[in-house]
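User: Sequence in, structure out. Go.
Assistant: Echoing your sequence, followed by the structure tokens.
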Amino acid sequence: MFKKILVAVDGSEHAKQAAAAAGELAKDSGGQLVIMHVMKRIGSDRIPEHLKELERIEHIEVTEANMFRSVADAIVSSAKDTAESAGASDILTTIDAGNPADQIIAYCKN
């Protein structure tokens, strides 16, 4: 029925419900599920002043961009878990940056 299903997620409860519904639809149709998250901005390489000491002690990079990416990864991972629980097995995840509507449309045109 469907070869590919795209669900865009933002970490909200509604997005979780959409991921579950898309997972069921993918399971029933045998189609691939694409879970997409679009960050409005990627963040800078700046290290927030209050995190500089943590970076030095823990030997980790805590830039604004890394924090944004970590949140995006967690959102996509959670949505993937939800879709898998609903029965989807062929799942692709993607994270992009920019205007969410524009990026979703651009992805669909590819």
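User: And one key feature?
Assistant: The helical segments are 13-29, 52-58, 64-85, 100-109.
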